Amino acid sequence: MTDSLMIATTANDMVRIYTVSTTGVVEEARRIHQTWPTATAALGRVLTGTLMMGVMSDTLKRLTVQFAGEGPLGKIIGVSNQPGTVKGYLENPQVDLDLNPLGKFDIAKAVGPGTLTVIKDHGLKNPYNGVVPIQSGEIGEDLAYYFTKSEQIPSAVGLGVLVAPDGQVQAAGGFIVQLLPGCPDAVAMSLEETLRYIPAVTTILNSGETSAQLARRFAIGSLKILAEMPVKYYCDCSGERFRGPLLSLGRQELEKIIQEQGNIEVQCQFCNQKYTYSAAEL
C-alpha cells in the first residue's frame, strides 16, 4: 500500500483533519539509519508528525521539528522541505529499551525531558521559532501541547509505529485533528468521545485502512477532502550543497585537511550519502 496524506474538514469546516500513512517512509528511515526498535518508533513518530505539519501552510518553505531530550536517543530531527516529503535523523540510532508497563515502546524514557523546537521558514528574513518544554516524551502528546501553547490551536495528535519481530516497520502513520475558531462545544465533545474509543493508529493501518479511511473516523456529518498526496522519505542533499560550507572554512584550513587526509569526505546526516572532494575540486 502506497503511503499517503489527506487533509480534510468536517463539522461545517469547524474541524480540520490531517491523516497520513507512513509505513514505507519509516521503513526507509530505519534502513538508512539502521535504527533499533525503540529508536525506529521514536524517529518514525517524529517523521510522521513532521509530514502533517509540513502541509499546514501554503507559504511554508521548510519545516523543522526537533526534540532535544536528555534520554539515550539524543536529538531527534524531522525536516520537510516540500509538501509530501520528509527526512530526519537521530543522534543515537542503536537504542532499544525494555517495554513500558503497558507493553509499549518506552519512547518517553528514550526521549527524556528537554525541549521541543518547531522552526517554520516561510522564505522571509527570519524564520518562526516555537519552543516548548517536552511534556511526556511520547512525541504525539508533545506536539499537541505545542499546538495548544504556541499556536493556540486545540489539537489531538495520534502517532504510531508498529515494528515487526525482525525489526522492520510493519505499520506507521498518524493523525492531527484541530478545532478551528468558533467550533461549537458540542462538536468538541463529539470528537473527545471519538478519541476516547478510537483504536491505536497502528492497529487501524495494520488492518488495511488507508489515510482516507482513517480521516473518515473523525467525520461529524460530511467530510470535505481538501487535498490528498503521496508521501516519501526524500533527501535533497548534493555535492554542490556541501561545497559551500567547505569553502567557508578558508584556504588555509582546507589545505591543512587535504595535506593530512588526501581528500575531504563529508557525509549527509539525513541519508548517509558520502561526498569526496579533492584539492582540485575545492
UniProtKB/TrEMBL annotation:
Record-linked SUPFAM superfamilies: Hsp33 domain, HSP33 redox switch-like
SS bonds (residue pairs): C235-C237, C268-C271
Recorded superkingdom: Bacteria
Single GO MF annotation: unfolded protein binding
Chief localisation class: cytoplasm
Post-translational modification: Under oxidizing conditions two disulfide bonds are formed involving the reactive cysteines. Under reducing conditions zinc is bound to the reactive cysteines and the protein is inactive.
Family, per entry: Belongs to the HSP33 family.
Protein name: 33 kDa chaperonin
Organism: Hydrogenispora ethanolica
